[in-house]
Amino acid sequence: MKRIRLILSCTLPLLAAAQPAHALQGGISVGGRVGTLGIGPEVAIPVGSGITVRGGAGLLGFDLDMTGRFGLADHRTARLFFPKAFYTLGADVSLGGLRAGAGLLIKSEDPTYRITLDQGASIDIGAGTYTEPEVATLTTGFSWAGTAPYLLLGFGSHSGRGLGFFADIGAVILPDASFSMTATGDDALLASQPFLDDLELEEREVRDDAGAWINYWPIVSIGLRFGLGR
User: Distance between CA atoms of 230 and 27, rounded to whole angstroms?
Assistant: First the structure.
């Protein structure tokens, strides 16, 4: 409820500034976007002078091969799995050649990062070192509540007829975000208290390394829209 009140406090003043007599001036704009919120459609409706209500969906989540990046040791593969769907609903206000926006984001599932060990490879988890097949995969989940507020700065207008380009940069605010880790491998080892202690220690170390960045999910997207205005 606190997140909903926060985002309403951002968006309601924008909507209140719109004059009902001029609602829907400029018509509806439809298009598509691609970026850190996935790939999918978007609809924008001008509701007043310089104010636009937007709704979109990233329906084609994707995976990234992270093997060999960020100092990952040899004989391991890594993949970053994005949620299969992100949904957004919010409002933008025009600031000259820029836009400022706020709204809510809803996700279908948590993003995860999975390391898979090659045969005989080893991995440090907490204070211990484990060798495949003792540990075959280590998966880190990045979780937060189902809805979260976002703030962004945009380039390109969502009003007017014809084809147009737009871009957004910003962040989803995640005050309750957390990491969780799971592993596959030898069942007896994975259920042992020493391994569970190491896994808990690794979670805390990852959380400490992330610092304040754990509370934000980046928004970087570009798109094309077509205005159906008068």
Answer: 6
Q: Between β-strands 29-35 and 51-58, what pairing exists: parallel, antiparallel or unpaired?
A: unpaired
For 22, other C-beta atoms within 10 Å of its C-beta total: 13
- pLDDT tens digit string along 165-187? 999 999 999 989 999 999 999 99
Task: Provide the whole-model pTM.
Answer: 0.76
Cα 168 to Cα 3, 6, 42, 98, 158, distances in angstroms: 21, 21, 13, 10, 12
Within 50-85, strands assigned E span 51-58, 63-65, 76-81
The low-confidence residues of the chain, meaning pLDDT below 50, are 1-25
Sign of CA dihedral 182, 185, 191, 196: negative
- Which pLDDT value is given to residue 70? 66
Q: How many CB atoms lie within 10 A of CB 202?
A: 21
How high is the pLDDT of residue 26? Answer: 52
Q: What are the CA-CA distances from residue 224 to residues 57, 83, 93, 104, 130 (Å)?
A: 14, 22, 19, 21, 48
Return the pLDDT at 230.
56
CA distance 81 to 76: 16
- Amino acid, single-letter form, for residue 206: V
